[in-house]
Request: fold
Amino acid sequence: MKALPLPSHFHPGRVGEVYRVAYQERAAEARAWAREHGLQPAVQDTRRIGLLLVDVQNTFCLPDFELFVSGRSGSGAVGDAERICRFLYANLGRISQVVATLDTHAAAQIFHPLFWVDAQGEHPSPHTQLSVADVESGRWRVNPALASRLPLPEGLDLAAYACHYVRSLAAAGKYALTVWPYHSMLGGIGHALVSAVEEAVFFHSVARAAPARFEVKGEGALTEHYSALRPEVMADAEGRPVGSRNAALVDALLAFEALIIAGEAKSHCVAWTVEDLLAEIRAVDAALARRVYLLEDCASPVVVPGVVDFTDAADSAYARFAEAGMHVVRSTDPIETWPGFAK
Reply:
């Protein structure tokens, strides 16, 4: 099956905008598009191909929003979102299902300023990294006003847990706890998918009679949740759960005969999702890694000029994934030319 043309409603210049998707019109156009191009319902696919879109949300992808992923180019996630749209439209007849994750937050979470205070009662600035020493020494401590306002496991000492948390990150080789700007706030416009991507996903759902699967992540107050498959920390020092592995999503992703992954940020939510997916694959059959395709031109790393640059960390992660058997590919290359894809 050759690549399809772009439908007339797609305007690349609008990818950086927020707009209302005209669902009823797009649905009628999608049905007509399916007839014109002979697209069958996805349930008839002999080879199930999944497209996992990690956190392609306004909060990360549009320059005016809270945590725009610029990459070193300065325009990273906007270009990524455009290429995701182009790729999905071109391969509408090949992709069996889209799975989209949605980073989902509230004000009082361990990675937001409100959670922490210093000796003067001030909150840390966005992008502050909290080390084990910072928390153990009390340089930054849990905001005492929150202790009775959070849904905590019975008997949990929040101050002791904070020390356990940063120690757990360090012991697991994770990034240090970063205090992020308030972002992906549930109920806010930053939480929504980029409008053009939402439109493409909806168009695919109707054209292929294949409803997209949406996965909410990151609602827990006591842990970061970069990966779509599990939070950074899952239990307190006594083993009481503060988060859980998303077993249903793991099973769904491993069931695809080919899985294509894109989204934001390459250095954080994408990298840790793929890292956890690789661990799940190795627990079953390491050869399954060859089913995974990473769209390197549809993901950008976190870069805050003069503050932090995760580009090298992201590139190292992708190199490690390639060594494990996954394929690092470009969305602009014909899908049939990808290594092993035609087999």
